[in-house]
Amino acid sequence: MLNIGIYGGSGRVGSLLIKNLQNDEVAKVSCVHVIEGIEIEVPGAVVTNDIDTLIQNSDVIIDFTLPEGTQALLEKLLITPKPLVSGTTGLNDHQINLLREVAQKAPVLYATNMSLGIAILKRLVALASEKLRDFDIEIVEMHHRYKKDAPSGTALTLAEFAAKARGLDLDEVRVSGRDGNIGERKKDEIGVFALRGGDIVGRHTVGFYNDGEYLELNHTATSRDTFAKGAIKAAKWVVSQEPGLYTIDDCLGL
Ligand SMILES: NC(=O)C1=CN([C@@H]2O[C@H](COP(=O)(O)OP(=O)(O)OC[C@H]3O[C@@H](n4cnc5c(N)ncnc54)[C@H](OP(=O)(O)O)[C@@H]3O)[C@@H](O)[C@H]2O)C=CC1
Ligand SMILES: O=C(O)C1=N[C@H](C(=O)O)C[C@H](O)C1
C-alpha cells in the first residue's frame, strides 16, 4: 500500500482526500496533519500537528493548505525530502522558488488546478490566444465566499498560457482591477477578474473579444471531488518519478 500523508486534513479538499482514499485499493491515508487544537479521527492514520511526523509517516504528501502552510512544509522537505503533490494557490515568488529547490531533491507535482478539464482548457487558451492575435483577452473566475486568494491560481495559470502564446510577459500586461477614469483598454492587456459568492466550486471563463465576434471558453467544476481525485492520481504517479518539478499535464500524459 502507498502511504499518503495529508497536509491540511481538516480543509475542504483535505477532508475529501481522506474520504476518497478510504476505499482505495493501492493507497491509504497514513498520516494527517492538522493545526494544533483541531481534533479529527482517521482510522488507521496518525493524526499530528507536527510536520516532521507527517513526513516520517508518508511515502508521498498531498498539500492543500494556505501559502504559509506550504512554505513551512517546503522548508522541512528541503531537509528531509519526500515526494509531494501541492495544489495550494496564492504562492509568492519565494514560495515558488522553494518548490523548485525541493524538486531538485524529490519529485514534486504542483498544479493550480487538478482537473482534466482545466488541463485541456490551458491548451485551448494557448491556441486561441496565438491564432486570434487581434482579440482582446479577458478572464473571469468565480468561486465560493470562503476562498482567500484572488485571482484564483487557475485564472493566473490560464492568463500565463494566453500571454506566453503571444510572447508577452504576464506581469507587464495583467490588469486585475478597473475603476474610475482609466482610459481606453490597451491592446495587449489581459484582464483577470475575480467574483466571490455562495458555494461556487470553481468557474473559469476565458474570453477572446473582437469587433463583430467573440469566443468564450468556459470550464465549471461542479464538485470539489474532481480536485481530490486528481490529486490522488497525481500522488500515485509522482511517487515513482525522478526528482523534478512536474505539473498535472505530465501525470495525465498530455
Ligand atoms: N489545485 C487545485 O486543484 C485546487 C486548489 N485549491 C487550493 O487549495 C488550498 C486549500 O483549499 P481549501 O481546502 O478550499 O481550503 P480550506 O481553508 O478548507 O483548508 C485549508 C487547510 O489548510 C490548513 N491550514 C491553514 N493554514 C495552515 C498552516 N499555516 N499550516 C498548516 N495547515 C494550515 C487549514 O487548517 P484549519 O482548518 O485548522 O485552519 C485547513 O485544514 C487553497 O489554496 C485553494 O486555492 C483548492 C481546490 C482545488
Ligand atoms: O479555492 C478553491 O476552491 C479553488 N482554488 C483553485 C484556484 O485557485 O484556482 C482551484 C479551483 O478553482 C478551486
UniProtKB/TrEMBL annotation:
EC number(s) on file: 1.17.1.8
Annotated binding of (S)-2,3,4,5-tetrahydrodipicolinate, by residue: H144, G153, T154
InterPro entries named in the record: DapB_C, DapB_N, DapB_N_CS, DHDPR_bac, NAD(P)-bd_dom_sf
Coiled coil stretches, renumbered: none
Residue intervals of the Dihydrodipicolinate reductase C-terminal domain: 117-252
Broad class of enzyme this protein falls into: oxidoreductase
Pathway: Amino-acid biosynthesis; L-lysine biosynthesis via DAP pathway; (S)-tetrahydrodipicolinate from L-aspartate: step 4/4
Xref: CDD domains: DHDPR_N
Positions with a binding annotation for NAD(+): G8, G9, S10, G11, R12, V13, E39, G87, T88, T89, A111, T112, N113, M114
Record: active site: H143, K147
Catalysis: reaction(s): (S)-2,3,4,5-tetrahydrodipicolinate + NADP(+) + H2O = (2S,4S)-4-hydroxy-2,3,4,5-tetrahydrodipicolinate + NADPH + H(+); (S)-2,3,4,5-tetrahydrodipicolinate + NAD(+) + H2O = (2S,4S)-4-hydroxy-2,3,4,5-tetrahydrodipicolinate + NADH + H(+)
Swiss-Prot/TrEMBL GO biological process terms: diaminopimelate biosynthetic process; lysine biosynthetic process via diaminopimelate
Function of the molecule: Catalyzes the conversion of 4-hydroxy-tetrahydrodipicolinate (HTPA) to tetrahydrodipicolinate.
Subunit structure: Homotetramer.
Protein name: 4-hydroxy-tetrahydrodipicolinate reductase
